[in-house]
Specification:
Layout: H1 13-45, E1 56-60, E2 70-73, E3 78-83, E4 86-91, E5 102-104, E6 109-111, E7 118-120, E8 125-127, E9 136-142, E10 145-153
Antiparallel strand pairs: 1-10, 2-3, 3-4, 4-9, 5-6, 6-7, 7-8, 9-10
The structure holds FE2/S2 (inorganic) cluster (FES).
Residues 94, 96-99, 112, 114-117, 128-130 line the site of FE2/S2 (inorganic) cluster.
Length: 162
């Protein structure tokens, strides 16, 4: 019986190609795993910030909203009303289940298309299932410019005297 020393045996070209291929595949696997780990780590390190629209809305000057006007700001989901008591801002989101209400200028009333809630021009409930008036938002006069902060709710009777 003779022993064959594999390490001493000449390597065929075919064997060399197989080793090279396995080396390349192993390197690629490590590169993919390392890259995936690096990407995951970088994503983990970055804060997961949710970009939201600004909460302060610039309305304009008092003169831009004549007495008796109900200004509808669809994108900002706001109504701005100028009455003889002053100016106030209301959310246009229905207090029932959160649908967007619509202002009917002919009836001078606000209605919700979802379940039929109705509000007067001051946001008070006049019909339907809405449990509360439309939510008033903080409105301030800064340097002659009206600014609404949509994050801050104020009382149902809040009016900015102008
Ligand atoms: S969401 Fe407005 S009436 Fe229901």
């Amino acid at each position: 019986m003779t022993l064959v020393d594999d390490l001493q045996a000449p390597v065929s070209d075919h064997e060399l190609d197989r080793r090279k291929a396995l080396g390349i595949l192993t390197g690629a696997a490590f590169a993919i795993a390392g890259g995936g780990t690096a990407i995951t780590t970088i994503r983990y390190m970055r804060p997961n910030v949710l970009f939201e629209p600004p909460t302060k809305v610039t309305i304009g000057s008092v003169a831009d909203i004549p007495m008796g006007t109900l200004l509808v700001l669809i994108e900002q989901k706001l109504y701005i009303a100028h009455t003889d008591e002053g100016i106030f801002a209301m959310s246009s989101v229905c207090t029932h289940l959160g649908c967007m209400t619509r202002y009917d200028a002919e009836k001078n009333a606000i209605a919700c298309p979802c379940h039929g809630s109705k509000f007067d021009a001051a946001g008070n409930v006049t019909g339907g299932p809405a449990p509360r008036p439309l939510v008033r938002k903080q409105i301030t006069l800064e340097g002659g410019v009206l600014i609404v902060d949509t994050r801050k709710d104020v009382g149902e009777s809040f009016v900015l005297k102008v």
